[in-house]
Each structure stands twice: as structure tokens, then as C-alpha cells.
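EI: anyone free to look at a 217-residue chain?
SC: sure, send it
EI:
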Amino acid sequence: MPQATVIQLFPISLYKGKMKIDDISKDFVINQEYERMKSGNGDYTKNHYLLDLHEMKSLKEEIMIHVENYVYRYLNVRDEVVRFYIQNSWAVKHSPGDWAQNHIHSNCLISGVCYLKTQKNSGKITFTKPDGYTNLFHTSMKLPFFDSGNHNCDWWDEIPEDNDILLFPSHLMHHVKRNDSDEDRYSLAFNLNIEAILKSDDSDLDYLKLTEAKPYD
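SC: here you go
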């Protein structure tokens, strides 16, 4: 076999970690007031800024440890220039039979979800390759592969377990399979944006000052 190196160009990075979530925080989220989504396939909390609550302080700090690990250590974003903050956050309850359609998260840069209460077959999350994103062969050519991997697949499944956290670019399409268990599944979703002063290396005219927007009282 010839000696060679294969370099993965322009990958989309999905971060997966394990959190330490205490039972008090879990119970607080689970006991929030929920309402049915307009899509009719799940419930979410009426409060869309859950992690701003004092009771969520420890959980928010734990999430930010993973966020900083992802964006500063793995993605190498310059931490002296860009500060990531949690823009909004809400819990999702998927009762038996519930699911989530294919979607992205708008008006943010990084999205995440941490899992509070899961069961076997309560619904895996599936990430799909964005339309028009051709990292290998175009979808108009359906080549057969011996094995499916992150370099040649059109979708990627993650089976969530309690205390898992996932972080990913907000434009990455994803959906949640049907909850086929006999119990409710609870997760906490959130979006991140940046506070930064940005400008192009080529022109001082390409200047943008971004500041954190506080939620309405």
C-alpha cells in the first residue's frame, strides 16, 4: 500500500461532552410551565430564557465550560476578541409519540442541547448534510460505500443519554426521531451569539461592534 495522508477539508464540527447536572437543577427544569408547540409535536417552556434564572446558575456555568472548550480550544476562536454568551434557552418535553421536524436555529452562531431525562428509544437526534454542501461527491451521484462514516454520510445519528451535551453550528440541519418509549423525555436547548469588535484585515471600513442583547423584563 502506498504511504499517504488524507486531510479532512472544511468539516462541520459536532461537539459531544458529558455534564454534571444535579438533581435539583433537573427537577427545576422538569417542573417548569410548558406549552404545546405550534407544530403540535412537542412542548416547550413558556420561559425562553431559562438559563438566566438564578436557580440555573450552576447549570449555566457547567454549560459554559463546554462552550469555551468547543469554541476556544477546539475551534481556536480568539478569546481576547470574541466572547460567546447564551442568547436564549428553553426546555423541551417530548412525550411518547412526539418528535421534531428538520430545522436550523436562526439568528445565532452556535446551538446546543443538554439531556436531562432520557429513556431507551426516546428519540435520537439526526444531523443532516446541508443542501448544497458537497464535501465529497455531489448528491446527484449516488455512489455505494462499504461503510458509512463522517466523511461520506448524508446524515449522522446521536443517541442521547442523560447528562450528554451537544454543541454545533446553528446552520446545521437536524431533527429528532419519534419518542417510542413510554415516558417523557426532557432536554434543555440554547443558542449562543457573540459580543465582539470585528473588522477585516483588508479594510477598516469592514467594522462591526456587537454587544450582548438582554432579554426583555
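EI: The chain has one domain: 15-197.
SC: 👍
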